[in-house]
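Table 4 source record.
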Amino acid sequence: MAQIDLRPVRISRDPVRRSAQLLTGLALYGTSVAFVTRAGLGLEPWSVLAEGVMKHTGLTFGTITGLVSVVVLLLWIPLRQRPGIGTIANVVVISVMVDVVRAVLPDQHDLVWQIALLAGGVALNGVATATYVGARLGPGPRDGLMTGLAGRTGWSVRLVRTGIEVTVVGIGFLLGGTVGVGTVLYALAIGPLTQALLPLTTWRDRAPEEQEQQQGH
């Protein structure tokens, strides 16, 4: 399979389509996180941390998600990472959508609904991640931290991501965040889901192809 080019591209290229794709992906991502939190069967790593902090502060889940994203962005500075439009939108849209969906969706206590929300949330998260990443308007705060650390240390992205997520889950768990089957399912499923969907969602620059075709004629 050919390598997919995910490098950020200026917003001036196909701005309407890519902006719509970015915002749709981020809105779906926030919705998926809310689904998993209401399932009550275990959260994805950063949500474990957010829930743990929430239990000690009284702030909303979305507010904490946004604040954590800002803290992570501050860690970009020594890593010399540059945020894009997608990075800032990531912080705002996901935080708002998590709270909006959680406001209308109560905690589930029936196992059938819990499983349905968990499975649907993880699947939707994969779709959402591929959608907003595929817009190529800048990485999310956590993505940038991962790639920045990998670049500065020379360690593999997989090793850095694992290290970050284990640390985040550990801190979140100690603060009272929920770790369970959902945490494991997310860890196992999100990578393959995103990888499978990226070829369908990634924006490609058609200009070079069109130039080649014109030269061929």
